[in-house]
């Protein structure tokens, strides 16, 4: 259908047009790596990749607390935050060594994650310094690796610039990891209005409402949707426009 890059798709969803004109920085934090992109005058002018991400935060927890990676990931997802103002009374993990118990609280976890985010942002800062001309740009964090409360506050301190996170408000796609997917769909929908219906380069088999689709061990069941009785949202209309069989 079309080819674009992930950073452009994210910007399509996360930024208003005015920011793309005046200058904006997008930080897409993934699991193994992060992408730093700079937009100005409506164009993507700079893009770089940093080999740090959510995996490094999980590894920092596992190393600091001497626990397996899977348990560290569980704690990060369930209790993770960079807000050091939380209470110190919630014990989430206990270790025992030589008959001595050591308790770790959510505040302890917040300190580990805050230190980890600072390390990640220091590396990202070196990528941003390439375009640094003394100006302050709109800076936004997206991506699944940025799913930590108060991560924008830590990033603001390290980057010496106001940073915010962006979370989609589309029903069913409110995770930060979905930003690029939504941006790509809206981009293709806009393209469709300009160039019209494109010939399909890939035809998928018809799938009934009762069939289950399996991807790498995960099962997703397609449920019936009555368009006559339910209100169509923005995302539904975009999907219908993209995959309509009408000329």
TrEMBL record:
Q: Which key words are in the record?
A: Cell cycle, Cell division
A Pfam family per the record = FtsA
Report what the protein is called: Cell division FtsA domain-containing protein
- GO terms under biological process: cell division
Protein species of origin: Allocoprobacillus halotolerans
* Domain of life from the UniProt record: Bacteria
Q: Specify whether Membrane is a keyword of the entry.
A: no
